[in-house]
Amino acid sequence: MSAYDVVIIGSGPGGYVAAIKAAQLGLKTACIEGRETLGGTCLNVGCIPSKALLNASEKFSDSINKFSKMGIDIATPTLDWTKMLQYKQTMIDQNTQGISFLFKKNKVDWIKGWARIKSKTTIEVNKKIIEAKNIILATGSEPSSFGKIQFDEKRIVSSTGILELKEIPKKLTIVGAGVIGIEMGSVFSRLGSEVTVIEYLDHIVPGFDKEISKTFQRILKKQGLKFIMNSSVKGIKDSKSGLDIEYSTNGNNVTETIESDIALISTGRKAFIRDLGLEEMHIDISNSGKIRVNNYWQTNFENIYAIGDVIDGPMLAHKAEDEGIAVAEIIAGQAGHVNYDVIPSVIYSSPEVAAVGKTEESLKNEAIDFKVGKFSFMGNGRAKTSFSSDGFVKILSATPTDRILGAHIIGPSAGDLIHEICVAMEFGASAEDIARTCHAHPTYSEAIREAALACGDGAIHS
């Protein structure tokens, strides 16, 4: 067999998108994947299954808390966890089968097995050698723990194990108030678990705008989640009732204990680069365990590229997708590009949280003069009709030019609304550009326009 023009190792969002794009550009392409299904962590044990449970649990919560307010009288809703897990699996199957279809449609060869790079142009899979003119490393990431705490995926679980629990825990303790912890906490709180979140910092969802974080935590508390902030988990021990989770307040040596049935460790993820042969190849790895690349995503071998979670930057599926497209274009002789200043982040809770660009804190640290335009969903007619008026839109624009520097949303459909700002920022738009754009009424998106108006003379409906 002649050499492939490009072989991608890993079929997650970065890998499968790179493979499809490369094939579309006329390159002979293969993708190596060791799982039984395509799609990587995202489709199999990450984005898709978690969003399925978020959707199902929100519908269940709405049937209890909102339906009667709209004149919909139903019998007391009952929860069938087994069926909910079946629904989740159906969503996984549909999405992974979709990638398999796209590979066939675009003539991408799927090589099943675990890859190991043998030279700059050869890869070993199932004791066979695959030749490749170019190689893209897109192997993603895996959950990481801390200290001596190890996952057993039964009682001490990672983001993978939490999706496969045999029953809904009465008490769930989450270590880490990042995106994964908050999303899973939301799911099980709606389904009846007593959820406690232990966070090392004094605020949740690190990296998000502090005002968003503060408002978000207040809303989550109203929904029943409990928070222990400024605290470190020291250990987890077996107990008669389940688990004893030991923690102490930062700066305090007094150890306290909380009982729990399940502990979710959501303190971060690490690049999945084990057993790839990178050490033998002397591919540069940073002290943080990431693959070093240049501005063209090349490793220290010019024909071996790396994208997604294995390199620096936010561990986001859509970031990996953009990098996959860019690398495929570069290999095909085009000019691939990723605008890292316009990569949105979303938390799929209820309400949703979304952000893009600079925060107030980062602008102050950089001594950039800026304006703030805010609008509460309390003033949005559509939000009121759906009982989703908690939250607000905040737009940050440069004082001298009015150019949009960032936006932060907590409220209904925030994950979709943020993309109006993304497009605007990609074109270098001002807040006034959005303010002067007609928005349909009544829609959630009107809150975006109102926040843009607040960057100028002021919002209309507040």
What does this protein structure show overall?
The protein has 462 residues and is α/β, with parallel strands linked by helices. The protein has 13 helices and 23 strands. A five-stranded parallel β-sheet has the order 3-2-1-7-18, covered by helices on one side. 44% of the residues are buried. The mean pLDDT is 97.
What's a concise summary of this model?
By secondary structure, the protein is an alpha/beta fold. The chain has 13 helices and 23 strands. It is 31% helix and 23% strand.
Output the keywords.
462 residues; alpha/beta; FAD/NAD(P)-binding domain; Enolase-like, domain 1; 3 domains; 5-stranded parallel sheet; 13 helices; 23 strands
**Which term fits the overall shape?**
globular
Structural class: alpha/beta
Give the end-to-end Cα distance, rounded to a whole number of Å.
67 Å
- Report the strand count: 23
* Mean pLDDT, all residues: 97
Sequence of strands across the biggest β-sheet: 3-2-1-7-18
Low-confidence stretches: none
Radius of gyration: 23 Å
How many H/I helical runs? 13
Number of domains: 3
Largest sheet: 5 strands, parallel
Classified by CATH, the class of the largest domain is Alpha Beta
Strand content: 15-25%
CATH superfamily of the largest domain: FAD/NAD(P)-binding domain
CATH topology description of the largest domain? FAD/NAD(P)-binding domain
By CATH, the architecture of the largest domain is named 3-Layer(bba) Sandwich
Helix proportion of residues, in percent?
Answer: 25-40%
